[in-house]
C-alpha cells in the first residue's frame, strides 16, 4: 500500500530571500552567509550545505552536479545526502546498513523567487520507493511573505518480511521531521531578527560590461550597495515586510488550505491528519467541482472514521447524497415546527458551556414522547431533530468567530427527572432509534459532550436498548449523574458556568425551555395513512428519484421533445458502483408500458426501467447524442443538451465494466481490478432532469437547485450550450 502525505500551505511572514538563508540551518553560518552574499561569495557557502544541529538525522551531503544560468538567476544543485535512521538495531543489522542515502535536486529561481526541492531514496531503491517534493514561493497577496508546500509518498514493495514495521517507522520519523523542520525555520528566523537582521537584497540582473547601471526600483537593492539591513533601519524593513496579518488567515490559493487557517478554524491537527483532510478535500474538488462541503464538515467525517480516508469518503458521499435527495440544506428556511412542538417539545438552546460550545438542554423526563409520536408522527419529529442539528452547526460557526478559537461541536444537557415506563413505549423507542441512526450517519462528531442528570432507576433499561446503536466514540462523551450527584464539585459546575445553570437544576439562570406535559389525546392523528414501517420519509415529495442499474439491465428514461431548440438538463449522483451515462435520440417512440413524462414524477426507490428495444440498431433506429461518460462511485454530475430535432431523447445509465476484448488483446488490469471490487451486480443512483425552452436556459437551472446550498458551499454557475447536435455542458 502506498502511503501519501500532502501538507497544507504554510506561510512564513518573511521575505523569500530571508527564508532561503534560514534554510542553511546554522545561525553562525547564516551571518557569514549574508556577508558572503555582499562580497559575491554566495556559491562557496551554498556548496558547504552545512549540517544542522537542530536536525540530527541529517549527517552531511556531497554535490553530484551543479549548473547555473548565464545571468545567475537559476541555480540547480543535485546532492547525495546522508541520513541517520532511528530504527531498531536488529532491523539495521538485517538490512545491512547503518545509514541511508537520498538524492536531492534543488532548483532555485532568484528572479521568480521560487525554490523546488525533489528527493528520492538511493538506498534500497529496488525495495522501497520514497518520493518527496517541496516548494517555496512568494505569497500571491503579499510579496514579503513566503509560502511552503510539501508532498511525499512511500511505497514499500518488500523489506525482508518487515514491511509493516518499516512503514510505521518511516511514517513516524517523517511526520516528526515535518514538525521539527517548521520549528527550526521559525527558530532561526527569530534568532536573525533578534540580531537585527531583517532584510536581504533581492536578486538583480548583472549589468552588461560597458553599460551604465540603471536606477534600481525602490523594492530592489544591489547586493554590493546594501548587503544586509540591521539596527533601526532593519526594524523598519521588518515592519514593512511583516505587516499586520489580515483579520482572517487567507489561503494563497482558493483550492488550498493554509496552515494558519487550519489552526484558527479547525484546531490542532497532526501532520498526517492535515494530509488526510487536504487529500479528501482535493478528491471532492475533482469529483464534485464547486460543490464541496465546508472544511469543518469534512473533518468531522474523518474523525468519525479515525482518519481512514476511504471509509470517511464513503460515509461523506452517502451523507451528501442524502442531504441532496431530501433537501436538508434548506431545512432551516423551509421547516417551521408545528405549534404542538413549540408547546410540548421540551428542548432548546441555552447559552454555552465553559469551553464555548453551544449548550442544548433537553428535559426528556418531562416530554410525552408517546403523545408527540401519535400526534405528529415520526417524520415531523425527525425533521425537528435535523433542524436542531443544523442550528447547532450554525451556532458552532458563530462561536468560532466569537471566541477566536475552533468550536466544532456542542454540549447537550439531558434532564431525566420524570422518566418512567411510559417513555419505554415500543413505537416511541423505535422512533428514537431511527432518529439516532440518521443523526449518527449524517452529523458525526457534532456532539462534544452529553451530560445526563437525575437518572432514575428505569434509565438502565432505556440505556440497554439505545446504547448499541450509538457509536463508541460518541458513548465515551456521555457523563451520567444519578440523584443529586450533579451538584457541587465534580458535577455540572465543572462543565457549565454557575451563572448559566438552569433554575430547575438549582441554578440562578431562568431557562425558557418548555416544561412539556401530556399531549391531549384529542390531538392524536388517525391511522388513515400509516408511515412506512421500514423507513422514515423525510420528504413526501422529492425532486430526486432513485434508480438501480443492474448488470445487463440499464436504467433509461425518455423525454419527448415536440419542437427543436429545447434544453434537456440533468443532475445525478452515483451512490454505489460505477456507471456509464449516455444520451440517445430516436424518431420512434419506445414501446413500453411504463412511459416517462416530460417532467418526472415520483418514482419508487430502486425502480429500473428499460426502453431501448433489443431489436433496435444503433445508427438506424436511434442515434447517440453524447459520448459515453464513465461516472465513478461518489461523483456528482450535472449537464445539459440543446436539442436540434423533435423526437424522443433517451437518458441511459448502465453498469460500467471492462471493454470487450478483440482478437488477441487482453483486458486492462485497471478494468479487471474494478470489476473485482464490485460487491454486487447492482449500482444505485439518484437523478433529476428537466426540459427548458432554450431562451429560458441561462439562469433557470432548477435541476441544479442543490448548487445554491449554503451548507455545502455549492457553486450555481451554469453555462449555456452552443446550439449544435453535440452541444452539451457537463460538470462533475
SSE layout:
Elements: E1 2-6, E2 10-12, H1 16-22, H2 27-38, H3 42-48, E3 58-68, E4 74-84, H4 89-95, E5 99-109, E6 114-121, E7 128-139, E8 142-156, H5 163-194, H6 231-241, H7 259-266, H8 271-287, H9 295-304, H10 309-325, H11 331-334, H12 339-344, E9 347-352, E10 358-362, H13 369-376, H14 378-403, E11 410-415, H15 426-442, E12 447-455, H16 459-466, H17 472-475, E13 478-482, E14 545-550, E15 555-561, E16 566-576, E17 579-586, E18 623-631, E19 636-642, E20 647-655, H18 669-677, E21 682-693, E22 728-731
Parallel strand pairs: 10-11, 11-12, 12-13
Antiparallel strand pairs: 1-8, 2-8, 3-4, 4-5, 5-6, 6-7, 7-8, 9-10, 14-21, 15-20, 16-19, 16-21, 17-18, 17-20, 19-22
Structural overview:
- The chain has helices at 16-22, 27-38, 42-48, 89-95, 163-194, 231-241, 259-266, 271-287, 295-304, 309-325, 331-334, 339-344, 369-376, 378-403, 426-442, 459-466, 472-475, 669-677, and strands spanning 2-6, 10-12, 58-68, 74-84, 99-109, 114-121, 128-139, 142-156, 347-352, 358-362, 410-415, 447-455, 478-482, 545-550, 555-561, 566-576, 579-586, 623-631, 636-642, 647-655, 682-693, 728-731.
- The model is unreliable at 24-49, 213-252, 529-536, 593-606, 659-679 and 699-731 (pLDDT under 50).
- It contains 18 helices and 22 strands.
- It is 29% helix and 25% strand.
Amino acid at each position: 500500500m502506498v502511503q501519501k502525505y500532502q501538507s497544507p500551505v504554510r506561510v512564513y511572514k518573511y521575505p523569500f530571500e530571508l527564508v532561503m538563508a534560514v534554510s542553511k540551518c546554522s545561525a553562525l553560518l547564516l551571518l557569514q552567509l549574508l556577508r558572503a552574499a555582499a562580497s559575491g561569495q554566495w556559491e562557496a557557502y551554498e556548496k558547504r550545505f552545512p549540517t544542522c544541529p537542530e536536525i540530527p538525522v541529517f549527517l552531511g551531503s556531497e554535490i553530484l552536479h551543479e549548473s547555473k544560468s548565464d545571468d545567475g538567476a537559476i541555480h540547480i544543485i543535485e546532492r547525495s545526502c546522508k541520513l541517520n535512521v532511528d530504527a531498531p538495531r536488529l532491523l539495521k543489522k538485517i538490512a545491512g546498513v547503518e545509514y541511508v542515502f537520498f538524492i536531492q535536486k534543488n532548483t532555485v529561481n532568484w528572479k521568480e523567487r521560487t525554490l523546488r526541492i525533489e528527493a528520492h531514496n538511493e538506498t534500497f531503491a529496488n525495495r522501497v520507493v520514497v518520493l518527496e517534493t517541496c516548494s517555496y514561493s512568494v505569497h500571491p497577496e503579499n510579496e514579503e511573505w513566503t509560502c511552503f508546500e510539501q508532498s511525499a509518498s512511500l511505497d514499500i514493495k518488500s523489506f525482508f518480511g518487515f514491511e509493516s514495521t518499516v512503514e510505521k517507522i518511516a511514517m513516524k520519523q517523517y511526520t516528526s521531521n515535518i514538525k521539527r523542520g517548521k520549528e527550526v525555520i521559525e527558530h532561526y528566523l527569530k534568532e536573525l531578527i533578534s540580531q537585527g537582521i531583517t532584510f536581504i537584497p533581492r536578486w538583480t540582473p548583472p549589468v552588461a560590461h560597458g553599460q551604465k547601471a540603471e536606477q534600481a526600483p525602490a523594492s530592489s537593492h544591489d547586493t554590493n550597495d546594501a548587503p544586509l539591513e540591521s539596527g533601526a533601519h532593519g526594524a523598519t524593513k521588518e515592519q514593512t515586510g511583516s505587516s499586520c496579518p489580515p483579520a482572517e488567515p487567507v489561503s494563497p490559493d482558493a483550492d488550498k488550505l493554509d496552515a494558519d487557517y487550519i489552526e484558527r478554524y479547525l484546531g490542532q491537527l497532526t501532520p498526517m491528519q492535515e494530509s488526510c483532510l487536504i487529500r479528501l478535500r482535493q478528491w471532492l474538488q475533482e469529483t464534485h467541482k464547486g460543490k464541496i462541503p465546508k472544511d469543518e464538515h469534512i473533518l468531522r467525517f474523518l474523525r468519525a472514521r479515525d482518519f481512514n480516508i476511504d471509509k470517511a469518503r464513503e460515509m461523506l458521499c452517502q451523507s451528501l447524497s442524502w442531504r441532496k435527495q431530501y433537501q436538508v440544506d434548506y431545512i432551516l428556511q423551509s421547516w417551521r415546527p408545528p405549534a404542538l412542538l413549540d408547546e410540548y417539545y421540551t428542548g432548546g438552546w441555552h447559552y454555552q458551556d465553559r469551553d464555548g460550545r453551544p449548550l442544548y438542554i433537553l428535559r426528556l423526563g418531562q416530554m410525552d414522547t408517546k403523545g408527540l409520536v401519535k400526534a405528529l408522527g415520526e417524520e415531523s419529529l425527525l425533521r425537528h431533530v435535523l433542524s436542531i442539528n443544523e442550528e447547532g452547526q450554525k451556532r458552532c460557526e458563530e462561536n468560532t468567530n466569537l471566541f477566536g478559537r475552533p468550536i466544532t461541536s456542542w454540549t447537550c444537557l439531558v434532564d431525566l427527572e420524570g422518566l418512567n415506563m411510559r417513555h419505554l413505549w415500543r413505537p416511541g423507542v423505535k422512533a428514537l432509534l431511527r432518529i439516532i441512526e440518521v443523526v449518527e450517519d449524517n452529523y458525526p462528531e457534532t456532539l462534544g459532550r452529553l451530560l445526563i442528570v437525575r437518572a432514575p432507576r428505569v434509565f438502565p433499561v432505556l440505556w440497554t436498548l439505545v446504547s448499541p446503536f450509538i457509536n463508541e466514540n460518541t458513548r465515551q462523551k456521555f457523563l451520567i449523574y444519578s440523584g443529586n450527584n450533579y451538584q457541587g464539585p465534580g458535577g455540572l459546575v465543572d462543565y457549565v458556568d454557575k451563572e448559566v445553570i438552569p433554575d430547575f437544576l438549582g441554578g440562578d439562570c431562568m431557562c425558557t425551555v418548555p416544561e412539556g406535559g401530556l399531549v391531549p389525546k384529542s390531538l392524536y392523528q388517525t391511522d388513515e395513512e400509516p408511515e412506512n414501517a421500514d423507513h422514515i420519509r423525510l420528504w413526501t415529495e422529492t425532486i430526486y428519484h432513485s434508480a438501480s442499474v443492474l448488470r445487463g439491465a440499464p436504467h433509461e428514461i425518455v423525454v419527448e421533445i415536440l419542437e427543436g431548440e429545447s434544453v434537456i438538463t440533468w443532475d445525478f449522483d452515483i451512490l454505489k458502483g460505477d456507471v456509464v451515462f449516455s444520451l440517445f435520440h430516436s424518431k420512434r417512440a419506445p414501446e413500453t408500458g411504463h412511459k416517462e413524462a416530460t417532467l418526472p414524477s415520483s418514482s419508487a426507490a430502486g425502480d429500473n426501467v428499460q426502453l431501448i428495444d433489443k431489436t433496435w440498431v444503433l445508427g438506424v433506429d436511434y442515434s447517440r447524442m453524447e459520448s459515453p461518460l464513465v461516472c465513478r462511485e461518489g461523483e456528482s454530475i450535472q449537464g445539459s443538451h440543446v436539442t436540434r430535432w423533435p423526437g424522443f431523447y433517451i437518458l441511459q445509465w448502465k453498469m460500467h465494466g471492462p471493454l470487450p476484448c478483440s482478437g488477441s488483446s487482453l483486458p486492462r488490469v485497471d478494468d479487471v481490478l474494478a470489476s473485482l471490487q464490485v460487491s454486487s451486480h447492482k449500482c444505485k443512483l439518484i437523478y433529476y432532469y428537466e426540459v427548458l425552452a432554450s431562451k429560458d436556459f441561462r439562469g433557470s437551472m432548477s435541476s441544479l437547485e442543490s448548487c445554491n446550498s449554503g451548507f455545502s458551499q455549492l457553486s450555481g454557475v451554469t453555462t449555456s450550450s452552443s446550439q449544435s447536435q453535440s452541444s452539451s455542458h457537463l460538470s462533475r
